Amino acid sequence: MSKYILPVSVFGTVFGCAVLLKNHVTGGRCKSKATIHGKTVVITGANTGIGKETARELAKRGGRIIMGCRDLEKCEAAAKEIRGKTLNPHVYSCRLDLASLKSIRQFAERIKKEESRVDILINNAGVMRCPAWKTEDGFDMQFGVNHLGHFLLTNLLLDKLKESAPSRVINLTSLAHILGKIDFEDLNWENKKFDTKQAYCQSKLANVLFTRELAKRLQGTGVTVNAVHPGVVATELGRHTGLHQSQFSSSVLSPFFTLLVKSPELGAQPSVFLAVSEEMEGVTGQYYDVMTEKEPAPLALDDEVALRLWEVSSRLVGLKEDRQSQSEPAGSKQSNAVETHKPSPQTSPTAAASASALEKH
Ligand SMILES: NC(=O)c1ccc[n+]([C@@H]2O[C@H](COP(=O)([O-])OP(=O)(O)OC[C@H]3O[C@@H](n4cnc5c(N)ncnc54)[C@H](OP(=O)(O)O)[C@@H]3O)[C@@H](O)[C@H]2O)c1
Q1: Where is the signal peptide (predicted)?
Q2: Nearest to 202 by CA among 137, 261, 271, 127
Q3: Which of 36, 81, 108, 308 would you call most buried, defined as having the most Cβ atoms within 10 angstroms of its Cβ?
Q4: How many CA atoms lie within 13 A of 209 on its CB side?
């Protein structure tokens, strides 16, 4: 029995110290006290995890918050909770499925039509290590949601962001980007064996490359864009991983894991820091590891890859077509997706009612 005392007490001490020090080691809170009254924030995947806590913190700071989520019921439940807890009535739920180009276009149309400004866009939603699922448009789910969906959404909201300048775009990436490679020959895992980890890493590398290329294109517009790894945070992100899939790991390992990693509230602090802090004014094209600017992986610094990814992504989501059809005289070309989609807002009745009431103010 006594032979176990030493290792058990060493493990207990190390574990206890790790739990006590984790908040300090993992970055703490955003120190800025900046408020954002009069500013509009659009945040994706805000019904749970980091997104929900980011929405809550920015609502506390006085912003008008548009939460874009694929499940409107969950979204409205989260929005209602945030309105109640922060006493900020300007928190709205709106349907956005990043696995559908049509849904993204409808969401963007609605924002462009109904919102007078967009000051902060937080591309937060994410899916990690899911099976070889495809989006509605046939893209690999992780590449489609994490990269292409946000790529399209951001591009569609760029005019609004420019009109509202100085404005900020924040892209949630991950440290996992360092293991990523962009396989231009097979971005959607059609010709090789599917590797869900690698698919996640590819999508998160794409987030950093997109950030850097977009920052270049936005020079002089007053719109900044940065990418952030939020740290390791106890959220639902691991829902497709082993940790959540066996009885043993979900009941024994998962609680240990949760004790060692950041709460979603702390996990939201890096996004809040990038969105509001005074020291981020004018900073663009950078990668943040929690709240510290760091150099991303060498592949993420490759400007040619970033440009090529931009061009391929534009083609995949149909942005080039949009530009062409806009510059051609009406009727000279068959209308494409943008022209044919009538904006059809899909907010919950409560949110729609409160939104239209507030529009009048
Ligand atoms: N947690 C971490 O340790 C960690 C580390 C590094 C990076 N990140 C990044 O942080 C971001 C937030 O992740 P999280 O940890 O908060 O994960 P989470 O708790 O799983 O939240 C992800 C959010 O994204 C939404 N989402 C997924 N697919 C979507 C789609 N097709 N359309 C619209 N929304 C969709 C989810 O909606 P549903 O609830 O409906 O599924 C959910 O609201 C992600 O980009 C992730 O890659 C997290």
Answers
A1: 1-16
A2: 127
A3: 108
A4: 29
| Interior/surface letters 150-164, b for 16+ CB within 10 angstroms, e for the rest | bbbbbbbbbebbeeb
Helix (H, G, I), strand (E, B) or coil at 249: helix
Query: Catalytic residue among 92, 200, 287, 288, which?
Result: 200
Task: Note the pLDDT tens digit of each residue in 24-53.
Answer: 556 789 999 999 999 999 999 999 999 999
Angle among Cα 312, 316, 317 to the nearest 5 degrees reads 120
The ligand 1 atom at the shortest distance from the C-alpha of residue 123 is 45
Please confirm, yes or no, whether 200 is among the known catalytic residues: yes
Q: Examine the pLDDT at 331 and tell me if it is beyond 50.
A: no
pLDDT over 70, % of the chain? 78
Chain centroid to CA 214: 15
| Rounded (5°) CA angle 19-25-26 | 95
* Ligand 1 geometric centre to CA of 229 (Å): 13
Starting at the edge strand that comes first in sequence, how are the strands of the sheet with 292-294 ordered? 91-95, 64-69, 40-44, 120-123, 167-172, 223-229, 287-289, 292-294
| Domains parsed from the chain with CATH numbers | 34-232+265-359 (3.40.50.720)
C-alpha to C-alpha distances, 321 to 128, 136, 264, 308, nearest whole angstrom: 30, 19, 39, 17
Instruction: Classify residue 346 by burial, with Cβ atoms within 10 Å: 0-12, 13-18, 19+.
Output: middle
